Amino acid sequence: MKPAVFLDRDGTINEDVGNLFRVNDIVFIPGSIEALKKLQEHYLIFIITNQSGIGRGEFSFEEYLKFETEYTSILSENGVIITETKCCPHTPEYGCSCRKPSTQFIDELSANYGLDLAASFSVGDHLHDPEMGSKSGGRGIYLLTGHGRKHYRMIEESSYKPDFIANDLMEAAGIILGL
Ligand SMILES: [Mg+2]
Ligand SMILES: [Zn+2]
């Protein structure tokens, strides 16, 4: 069984510009590509992303899929292999079963790839990112990049507490690889 790191995309790997579906709008957060390179030496890397702009009709699922292919290619050209990406296109109001912090995508990936969820991590800049990892039996890391600093107060108000808090993905990689 292989351990995995489930990464949020916007605000975690790249800056969260809102409705990101154009290649020219990608701004990688400093150190994030290096962090992914370190992590992939020991973990399978997956992206799990909520893209409610699709559900609101702000961009189409076809535009999303085209972008996802280009995004994965850019990372690949930089030496980073994303094993698979999962996207929830729904608005919170829609009431789907796949939107984070749902563990549905993790459960599907675990079944397909034979993952060691207890040894896996979920990382991102919203509380639902680490929460998804903890709910699936692994651990969660909250990042202060993206919206993380702005929403930091929500940690105090929430009954869920992340296992770790890191300044950025590079620091999170250090925590994961140092354990
Ligand atoms: Mg995010
Ligand atoms: Zn969904």
Key terms for this structure?
179 residues; binds zinc ion; 6-stranded parallel beta sheet; alpha/beta; Rossmann fold; binds magnesium ion; 6 strands
Please specify the SSE layout and strand pairing.
Layout lengths: L3 E4 L24 H8 L4 E7 L1 H4 L5 H17 L6 E5 L15 H10 L7 E4 L3 H8 L3 E5 L9 H5 L6 E3 L2 H10 L1
Parallel strand pairs: 1-2, 1-4, 2-3, 4-5, 5-6
Helix pairs in contact: 1-7
The site of magnesium ion has 9 residues, from loops.
Brief overview, please?
The protein has 179 residues and is an alpha/beta fold. 35% of the residues lie in helices and 16% in strands. It has helices at 32-39, 52-55, 61-77, 104-113, 128-135, 153-157, 169-178; strands spanning 4-7, 44-50, 84-88, 121-124, 139-143, 164-166.
Counting DSSP H or I runs of 4 or more residues, the number of helices is 7
CATH superfamily: HAD superfamily/HAD-like
What structural class do you assign from the helix and strand content? alpha/beta
- Taken in chain order, the helices and strands follow as EHEHHEHEHEHEH
Biggest sheet, strands in spatial order? 3-2-1-4-5-6
Percent helix among the residues? 25-40%
Q: Report the strand count.
A: 6
Shape label? globular
Q: How far is the N terminus from the C terminus? A: 18 Å
Extract low-pLDDT stretches. none
Overall residue-averaged pLDDT value: 97
| CATH class category | Alpha Beta
Our count of domains comes out at: 1
β-sheet strand percentage: 15-25%
What Rg do the Cα atoms give?
15 Å
- What profile does the largest beta sheet have? 6 strands, parallel
CATH topology: Rossmann fold
* CATH architecture title: 3-Layer(aba) Sandwich
Ligands bound, unique? magnesium ion, zinc ion
